[in-house]
């Protein structure tokens, strides 16, 4: 058995809260070792921390390069990897939403549509959502500035993450409907969850005591 678990941690918006969580849970002796420098693999015995792009975290966890990971629910829903989702960490709050140009009311009532063209950085989430509505959707994958799509006629609507709604308002877009809430989640490799069952459940308990999550006793068997 190896000595200590490996965590995959997200760069970007979730990183500061993630470091605070690890430190308060006692899993990180010195939070400055994660906040300083550009190292991508950091050891703080008995744990190892891999710093990577959020979209890569489910891959590291699924293939066992990391035993545990912290990543947004948006990435989990888009990729649907073979991992365990253990705990809602209650930070990084935003939501998936459908938005359209304010001056294009013909697409504001999705229930009346039979087909639509949607642009999104999350094509799988978008396809599943419109399939659930019974609307035939042509989905255009984008990598950034998705708000442009309905403004220049590339798409009827967009599906994107919304936090404050400021970007939508400033681009004369309105939110048509909310799809689902998003927060950071603790995930685990399926094999590691069985081999290190006791250690991982202890970590879940520490995190839950700090953040109050909904899933603390997932079925790891």
TrEMBL record:
GO cellular component annotations of the record: cytoplasm
Compartment list: Cytoplasm
Enzyme Commission no: 2.4.2.17
Catalytic activity: 1-(5-phospho-beta-D-ribosyl)-ATP + diphosphate = 5-phospho-alpha-D-ribose 1-diphosphate + ATP
GO terms classed as biological process: L-histidine biosynthetic process
Top class in the EC scheme: transferase
Residue ranges of domain ATP phosphoribosyltransferase catalytic in the record: 53-208
Family label: Belongs to the ATP phosphoribosyltransferase family. Short subfamily.
Assembly behavior: Heteromultimer composed of HisG and HisZ subunits.
Protein name: ATP phosphoribosyltransferase
Biological source species: Carboxydothermus pertinax
Source organism phylogeny: Bacteria, Bacillati, Bacillota, Clostridia, Thermoanaerobacterales
